[in-house]
């Protein structure tokens, strides 16, 4: 068997935003809080002892971090890990929110090598969880116990121009696949915001773009080769074992390693993107029509403003000849954001920093990240940034045209926590408008609870998927689903600031805090997804849980002896 160990640097993203941060020292705040009155000598000694202890701890904490005395005016020093032993790989997800150190990170370069690796892991009851590009915000692919990555299995195996299909090794990245399809006049039907995923990861989580007539991407899988620990390689399609095919198409890496996939493509095409600023009343009035008339549509909601940015993409033929320019140039659209950043630097940092000419070279998302980094949890500060964002979009109204893969990408900004929800919202003929109700409630909640919520909250739509483990799964062909992505940026490499942001975000995520809450979540998942069927397949294909990790076990525990489940 041949396999390669992944170089530590290959997957480790060094994308920690290079911001200038000052350090909030919670310690200083704790020490400056008013002491309670002290009544007796004994108590005085006790409190003096406490004070000493606190100071000691404070000094220890202070000096154990690499912060100089004038840290307020220095760049943040990223938290440094001790050097890792040579054979230990650090693998983190894109946002740096999940990281594992592992000694086992296999990279087979052929399906035979992959088969051998999984068979050996099965025999020895070792973990070998499939890992794609590691983009998933929840670190779904990660486990310290061992992973397998298909970066060396990234070939295009066959293109059938007539049928508009492509067969690839599942380690190919979406961007590379699109490049390869170009010369055949083909492309993928839809895209997520970025194109760095491996096709395996992209389809296994049922990734999605937007367009109420377009399903999530797993729906484009026509057939696949699944390499399993217990049953070797299985070929699946809707003709060959349809039940397992649909289950494994969006299988969260729990049923096998997808080695090869055949995808349905579409003709390469251009799109005209129309961006404009709207408000809740106008959206409510036009929602049904817009959903139905536009091939791709999304709303970017900006908390604490009445601005909703509407982005519609359609084939050029639908538009007579839109003027492909914006009213404002890029610099004009950005000027007020730069001004806000300069003012904020004066307030939070120094006059000198506000004069940095580099500010004029930053993109909007970079400016937003840097602005947020100055005081990410201060509601008033975040509102100022949101208002600047609303104005930026107003000044960016207009049309642009390009190839679909370029137009459908979206700059999501820097590292971030993401909480995404997907729910049914009727059909195109009869939308329930639950999608707009949801947003109304969400924005009200944000204001009521004074949440420093940054922009945008992205709302998208898809058609249904026939994969039962997809959040957009439905037996009704006409059903449509809305996807709402709530984010909290992590615009800093300061470990403490990241922790504060994380805590703030997690207080609004229903992450189970104890056994009862976990049981509740499991029950909810059981109602929505065919957990028994999923577990039954897992038990058959991977009885030793080679492919599993703690997250999968928590969400889909094999409670019952699986043979009882139907
Ligand atoms: C900036 C950013 C923007 C994003 N935008 C979107 C978006 O617009 N829409 C959207 O839907 N998602 C979006 N995502 C999420 C991303 O598309 C998904 O998380 C996708 O799964 C990532 O693919 P990956 O290759 O990184 O998979 P990983 O994160 O590595 O793995 C994801 C899952 O797939 C499994 N897996 C990976 N490869 C295989 C394989 N060969 N065989 C079997 N299982 C495998 C893993 O075990 C894991 O369960 C975004 C992520 C980022 C960071």
From TrEMBL:
Coiled coil: none annotated. It comes from the Eukaryota. Residues 97-268 form the FAD-binding PCMH-type domain. Its cofactor is FAD. Pathway: Cofactor biosynthesis; L-ascorbate biosynthesis. Keywords: Oxidoreductase. The keyword Heme does not apply. This is FAD-binding PCMH-type domain-containing protein.
